[in-house]
Design a protein that fits this description.
Layout: H1 25-39, H2 46-49
Amino acid sequence: MAELGPAVRAPAPYTVPGVEPIAPAGRITSAYRGLVRALHPDAPHPVERGVSG
């Protein structure tokens, strides 16, 4: 039987979007939606949109 490697820990759910755990639900939702838009594979690259820096 194959040996399993060390467990990989997932980051805390509030650190990924950069909000505090006590943030209002609307701010958490907005942060996650922003990440979804930014990281979606069909979203244009920032350079393609003309966004700098």
